[in-house]
Design goal:
DNA binding; Arc Repressor Mutant, subunit A; transcription regulation; five-stranded parallel sheet; Alpha-Beta Plaits; DNA-binding SARP family transcriptional activator; DNA-binding
């Protein structure tokens, strides 16, 4: 006879399935098969059939009847061609059967062979053998008995053995470059077993090799959350190192997946270089950011998680400005910005990225988020001629970064002389801001942009009068005063409109939902420091005040309270595709704006991510009339990304800024007057 336990229990003899008895008889056979060729105590069988110390007085009699029935089944199949033997052996019973006749033993044998091949580096043979082993499974072990309520520790061990073999199989296939072939199954298993770090490691690697870096990093965040919430543990060293390697785009991660043609001989290389496309021009200049973070004493017990969050933030903010995180070791991170045609100068992009990183980590949007102490250096120079890539900096530029970051005070951005010259800083040096919040930069005097402010005022008044959305695109080269114009108009508009300045970057799982939340919070006067309870209360009162029909007000308040649960700008799970929720959102926004229009301001739109650009476009096409003004400021490079920006829409105005006089140009962080009087003065290096 042959027995199958890797799935529903089955017994087969002489080419036909044996007819087993009732549930107790099947459970007795299943438990004996898990201990084949070993004596199983009667007490163990009784506990397995009825639970520990729950056996009824007739339990032994029922067990004896089950054993007797199994012996009859075995005897019938013996006449048909061979059968195992069920013996009475102290302290209970012993099922004597050839191991090869049990699929569990076959699985263990194949798994051992596959692991030996894997250890020897023969990954193709290992994958084939392990695949054959896994093919023996027809479902969870003894699935029919599990469904009937039997939950033995032996079954858990068998299921864990299958997961171990699955991990070995995935490892072999990843080594063979077959990440796409196993990705679906790997995703399914890893999501079902979030605490198995090896599976998550393999899934992150497969996703990265499939070009899905963001998904790979999201797996790390999910696993880390599961480990912290369930066990109070941080991910292990291997998983953390993989996350850092993904963030740094380590070429070693692609080693196994890049050899698609290894089966055949490589074609001979031509003697001279062959260029089918124009060779890229090496950048003439490169800027580097070196960021050091201090972990507070209260966070040192979770230092690995803190550093992982810092690296994630640095990677995202740097990428927004066209830079690349090239190295991250301990508390230090290095990002590089090559000079590129048709883009803002690398030094200016590096400084903006440094400010963005500092603002995100030192001044979090929620009171419960951790505040970090940073020291940041920005240096600009020529890329090393002896390095294969402009991203591979070293020598004098790296030494200058190290010197600057060591001399910087807490939360300061220290810049070199060359960077200072490029960004046009008359004061130069390091820029420090205390925990009062990041300062807003004010550039040229108001007299320079009076006509443009008058245009914005008139368009806002027109939007209020006709109850329709209007767009004003402010265009100008760097340092023409775009940011100052938006800041000045924001102060003016606050007297007659609801003002909202949207950030020029968003890195969240549901970016559009959070932008929609920002608009709703502005209309309901929810402050950034308000927690979910306060936000919910303000939303409810605003709805009752704006919506006359009480039933409609209660419905909108209940539906839209989901936004108040997403006060954290990184967490949450709002569905951007919930059309009914979006319709309710528009209904409430229209009701809230019936008395005061909404002025939405977006600076540096040419640097914004696609989610923000799409959302601004959505604001300009509401399903119902809304008094709304959107003012965007951007470099002309916006039309390289979005050639159709504003085209074909009604109520669109473009304001082009001419260069301002020398000495009144809009200044970058650390220059000019600071709106917040509490801000620390800029120090000269």
């Amino acid at each position: 006879m042959h027995f199958r336990v890797l799935g529903p229990l089955e017994a087969e003899g002489a080419g036909r399935r044996a007819q087993l008895g009732g549930g107790r008889q099947r459970a007795t056979l299943g438990l004996l098969l898990l201990h084949a060729n070993k004596a199983v105590a009667t007490s163990t069988l009784l506990d397995g059939l009825w639970g520990k110390d729950n056996a009824p007085p007739t339990a032994r009699k029922v067990l004896q009847n089950a054993v007797r029935g199994l012996r009859v089944v075995f005897a019938e199949n013996q006449r048909a061609g061979g059968s195992p033997t069920l013996l009475t052996r102290s302290p209970g019973y012993l099922l004597r059967v050839e191991p090869e006749r049990i699929d569990l033993f076959q699985f263990e044998q194949l798994a051992e062979q596959g692991r030996a091949e894997l250890a020897a580096g023969r990954t193709r043979a290992a994958a084939k053998i392990l695949r054959s082993a896994l093919a023996l499974w027809r479902g969870p072990a003894l699935a029919d008995l599990v469904e009937a309520g039997y939950g033995w520790a032996e079954l858990t061990a068998v299921q864990n053995l299958r997961l171990d073999v699955l991990e070995d199989y995935f490892e072999a296939e990843l080594a063979n470059g077959r990440h796409l072939a196993v990705l679906a199954k790997l995703t399914e298993v890893a999501e079902a077993e979030p605490l198995r770090e090896r599976l998550s490691h393999q899934l992150m690697l497969a996703l990265y090799r499939s070009g899905r870096q963001a998904d790979a990093l999201s797996v790390y965040r999910r696993v880390r959350s599961a480990l912290v919430e369930r066990l109070g543990l941080e991910p292990g060293r291997d998983l953390r190192l993989l996350q850092h390697a993904i963030l740094a785009h380590d070429p070693a991660l692609l080693a196994a997946g890049s050899g698609a043609g290894r089966a055949g001989a490589a074609p001979p290389r031509p003697e001279g270089p062959v260029h089918l496309l124009p060779r890229p021009v090496a950048p003439s200049r490169v800027s580097a950011i070196l960021i050091g973070v201090e972990v507070g004493a209260g966070l040192r017990h979770v230092v690995d998680g803190v550093l992982a969050d810092v690296v994630t933030a640095v990677t995202q903010e740097v990428a927004l400005f066209g830079g690349t995180l090239t190295q991250s070791m301990g508390t230090m991170s290095l990002a590089v910005f090559p000079d590129e045609p048709d883009r803002v100068d690398c030094a200016e992009r590096a400084v903006r990225a440094a400010v963005a990183v500092r603002d995100r980590l030192c001044y979090p949007t929620t009171p419960h988020s951790a505040r970090h102490v940073l020291r940041v250096a920005v240096a600009t120079g020529e890329p090393p001629a002896d390095r294969p890539s402009a991203l591979d900096i070293g020598g004098a530029l790296l030494v200058e970064c190290e010197s600057l970051v060591l001399s910087a005070d807490a939360n300061e951005i220290a810049v070199c002389d060359r960077t200072r010259a490029v960004i046009g800083s008359p004061q130069g040096g390091r820029h420090g801001v205390p925990f009062g919040g990041p300062a807003r930069r004010i550039g040229p005097p108001a007299a320079d942009r009076g006509p443009e402010l008058d245009v914005l005022d008139s368009v806002l008044e027109r939007a209020r009068g006709c109850g329709r959305p209007h767009l004003v695109s402010v265009l100008g080269a760097p340092r023409t005063g775009k940011s100052w114009l938006l800041a000045a108009f924001e102060r003016r508009a606050a007297r007659t409109a609801v003002g909202l300045r949207l950030p020029d970057r968003r890195f969240t799982a549901a970016a559009t939902a959070r932008l929609r939340r920002d608009v709703l919070f502005a209309c309901c006067h929810v402050a950034p420091e308000d927690g979910p309870v306060t936000a919910r209360d303000k939303l409810h009162r605003a709805v009752l005040h704006a919506v006359r029909d009480r039933h409609t007000a209660i419905r909108l308040s209940a539906r839209l309270r989901a936004f108040t649960d997403v006060v954290d700008a990184v967490g949450g799970a709002l569905d951007d595709g919930d059309e009914a929720l979006v319709e309710d959102w528009w209904e409430l926004v229209a009701a809230l704006l019936c008395r005061r229009p909404l002025a939405v301001l977006v600076d540096d739109l040419h640097l914004a991510d696609d989610a923000l650009c799409d959302f601004v476009g959505e604001l300009l096409g509401p399903p119902r009339p809304v008094p709304l003004l959107v003012v965007t400021a951007a470099d002309p490079g916006l039309f390289l990304r979005r050639p159709e920006w504003g085209a074909g829409r009604p109520h669109v105005t473009t304001v082009t800024l001419d260069p301002v006089a020398d000495g009144t140009a809009a200044l970058l962080p650390g220059d000019g007057h600071l709106e917040d009087r509490r801000t620390a003065a800029t120090r000269v290096s």
